[in-house]
Amino acid sequence: MASSLLSTPSQTLAPAPAAARLRAARPAQVLFPRRSRALRVRASVAIEKETPESEPPPTFLREDGQGAGSGSVRERFESMIRRVQGEVCAALEEADGSGARFVEDVWSRPGGGGGISRVLQDGRVFEKAGVNVSVVYGVMPPDAYRAAKGEAGKNGAAEKPGPVPFFAAGISSVLHPKNPFAPTLHFNYRYFETDAPKDAPGAPRSWWFGGGTDLTPSYVIEEDVKHFHSVQKQACDKFDPSFYPKFKKWCDDYFYIKHRNERRGLGGIFFDDLNNYDQEMLLGFATACADSVLPAYLPIIERRKDTPFNEDHKAWQQLRRGRYVEFNLVYDRGTTFGLKTGGRIESILVSLPLTARWEYDHKPEEGTEEWKLLDACMNPKEWL
């Protein structure tokens, strides 16, 4: 969740303005960077403060030839993520069945861009569900550029000599159900462009797509995991049969909690910095992946949302949510990017569950259902 648009999973920053938006209509907000000004924020670049809006505008794009009516990739990607946000939120409200509705924050920035944050909390089925979209124009300091590209700490990573102008758009979501047998879901799809920095006007413009959908259950129910992975494979196979095995492994490798020697969950697909295929093809691929979220997840929720559970099951779910928090705050590239560029804090942290738990030196007994989950997180499996 998470999420920033520009990197991998996760979300945006800066607390939503108090003026707000308890509008019972839709969900949460994505994770993205913010526009910058010549102020000093962490690495010499600052950001324009967002302005609360009462209604979502038709578009968050600037009128710069790539906005409304241009047919640009930027325009079509924004249209897609806003459509998916609405569809996912409507489906989750129906699945929750409590009458709870998503609270909505809408914000914009004077120089262009903005977002829609939607969150449902303490429903009947969902403890917390966030579905965010963002469109952001800004300037990244070199270290944020490297974080977005996954190059931080690499030799020779500072290829761009100065602050890098960027455009980012994306949708990010994390869904935490109440029932321990109903898995958490995360998905994030984003499109990113950079321009040449001012002190390197000859540098080439670059673009890439990133994203993925992954499942984080507390218990291994093979029927559910296989269904989830089969839907991911179907979406990938429409474009290239090599995508699913490649992006499945990438997902297992990315969501790795190094200090625990285990994965966050049972995987899915993940890709980033993807620009070595035709741009139109990749736009279609990202769209197909985003459209596969509901068919991959809703059947599982319908099967598991009313499964009986006890206090021990709930305590284990809370321990696994602790792992979720650890990964998002320590390793997630989207969170790192958002923190370095001054994104919306509430949107960035919307991926975190309402509740989590840490116990000293907790180890499930070998052979138990809890141990089976931990084993699968430590030793990724081929589910199909």
TrEMBL record:
Q: What's the chief localization of this chain? A: plastid
What's the EC number here? Answer: 1.3.3.3
> Could you state one GO biological process linked to this protein?
chlorophyll biosynthetic process
Among the GO molecular function terms of this UniProt record, one is: coproporphyrinogen oxidase activity
According to UniProt, the reaction catalysed is: coproporphyrinogen III + O2 + 2 H(+) = protoporphyrinogen IX + 2 CO2 + 2 H2O
Task: Write out the entry's keywords from A to Z.
Answer: Chlorophyll biosynthesis, Chloroplast, Heme biosynthesis, Oxidoreductase, Plastid, Porphyrin biosynthesis, Transit peptide
EC class name: oxidoreductase
**So what does this one do?**
Involved in the heme and chlorophyll biosynthesis. Catalyzes the aerobic oxidative decarboxylation of propionate groups of rings A and B of coproporphyrinogen-III to yield the vinyl groups in protoporphyrinogen-IX.
| Protein name as annotated | Oxygen-dependent coproporphyrinogen-III oxidase, chloroplastic
The species this protein belongs to is Eleusine coracana subsp. coracana
